[in-house]
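Worked Example 4.2. Consider the chain below.
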Amino acid sequence: MGFFNKSNKQSTELTGDTPKVALHFFLELIQVVAISLAIIIPVRYFLIQPFYVKGASMEPNFFDHEYLIIDEISYRFSEPERGDILVFHYPNDPKNYFIKRLVGLPGETVEVANGQVKIYNDEYPNGIVLDESLYLSDEYTAQTRRDTLKADEYFVLGDNRASSLDSRFFGPIDEDVVVGKVWVRGWPLDRWKIFSTPDYNL
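Applying the procedure from the previous section yields the following structure tokens:
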């Protein structure tokens, strides 16, 4: 009898403290949520952002419906580099986002002709053919176009040159439309990858 009486007394005391316990738990929960939001919101809106690939313009390096994490902070401290995979607002319809590879930098002249991409700059005034074999299985680039980029412009191309709407058609993009660069492919898991900028040896 003594055992059950002791158990009942403990149970009564716990029941009597339930409102205090609940209030304490609720206050701690609010603190956890507030701290989490303070961390997550800046990360989500100012540092990284998730995107889904739509379409085939970057195949075979990126396929439709792949899930990407975009680095939005690096370009606040450094300039985009040739080979970076950019996410940007489509100049002709800013509601839409495009993903393309950066091939031409500010101040350069980019020439697409005879299936090749040629870069003219201070180091190569006579031009140099861009070697894209690191990420293209077929380096043939159709169309003919020549653009001299302003100080705030970039020339971008899709990796799937046969099926890409890019700077060959809508021209260079302004730096202010750039959202960030592709950092991680998170899905599908068997294609998970952290991306780095290719070295062109230019």
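Residues 107 and 150 are 5 Å apart (CA to CA). DSSP finds two helices and twelve strands in the chain. Compare this with Example 4.1 before moving on.
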